[in-house]
Specification:
The structure is a single chain. Helix content is 48%, strand content 14%. The chain has 225 residues and is of the alpha/beta class. The chain has a five-stranded parallel beta sheet with strand order 2-6-1-7-8, with helices on both faces. The chain has a three-stranded antiparallel beta sheet with strand order 3-4-5, with helices on one face. Helix 2 crosses helix 4. The chain starts with 6 loop residues before the first strand and ends in a 6-residue tail after the last helix. The structure holds cytidine-5'-diphosphate. The site of cytidine-5'-diphosphate has 16 residues, from helix 2, helix 4 and helix 8. Cytidine-5'-diphosphate binds next to helix 2, helix 4 and helix 8.
């Protein structure tokens, strides 16, 4: 019997811990992890590298079809075949990515790729619109949240570990700005899918969250493949 591919959607605001949890789930279940935020970040880097003002929708959209976004064998995001996983985490990209992600034509282009990946693999996909738009038929949808101050603390710590220079205040401001743009854009704004399960991680550690989700998935018959 042919096994149907399984997809798990994890949405939520910036730095709510989606990617950490998604990676753990993908590893435990032997699924592929797809970081859709990294794709928007790589597109943003492409605009910056081409000297384009990211608030200029028309100019940014001209790059569709001219720059190629993908993932390599390390599951790192690539821009025109070059591994840019580290570069996309910097402040310049973080400051501009939500503009790029609000442009419909760019979203449609990247969503196409995301859907293709989910057609051909068992996936854990994280983002803002996975449960509401990209994979509306996902087998399970999580909506992961945390207080903005807690998220800023996590992002600050993460940046320190990665050698990216920021202050806690800068992280907090950036998250607030992105939360606002992401949830107020016209096309595919950040919001929970009606059938999503909300997970508040403010007071929970990584293991507590991942154990909880694994147990939830198991109760729905989703286990390692
Ligand atoms: O890692 P972090 O939570 O900071 O954000 P990310 O997942 O890397 O996403 C970066 C940005 O891309 C978000 O702030 C959104 O503007 C955008 N994004 C989106 O619009 N839709 C997605 N499916 C994923 C990301």
């Amino acid at each position: 019997m042919i096994k149907k591919n399984i997809s798990i959607a994890i949405d939520g605001p910036s730095a709510s811990g989606k990617s950490t949890i998604a990676k753990i789930l993908a590893e435990k279940l032997n699924f592929i992890y797809i970081d859709t935020g990294a794709m928007y970040r790589a597109f943003t880097l492409g605009c910056i590298n081409n000297g384009i003002d990211c608030t200029n929708e028309e100019e940014c959209c001209k790059l569709i079809g001219k720059i190629m976004i993908g993932f390599n064998e390390k599951n790192h995001v690539t821009l025109n075949g070059i591994d840019v996983e580290k570069e996309i985490r910097g402040n310049k990209v973080a400051d501009n990515v939500s503009y790029i992600a609000s442009y419909k034509d760019i979203r449609l282009e990247l969503v196409n790729q995301q859907r293709l990946l989910a057609q051909n693999n068992d996936v854990v996909m994280d983002g803002r619109d996975i449960g509401t738009y990209v994979l509306q038929d996902a087998d399970v949808k999580f909506f992961q949240i945390a207080d903005v101050e807690e998220r800023a603390k996590r992002r600050y710590k993460e940046n320190l570990e990665k050698g990216i220079e920021t202050s806690y205040e800068e992280c907090l401001e950036n998250l607030k700005k992105r939360d606002y743009i992401d949830s107020h854009r016209e096309f595919c704004p950040l919001r929970p899918a009606k059938d999503s399960i909300e997970i508040n991680t403010t007071n929970l550690g990584i293991n507590e969250v991942s154990d909880m989700l694994i147990a939830l998935l198991k109760s729905k018959g989703i286990e390692r493949r």
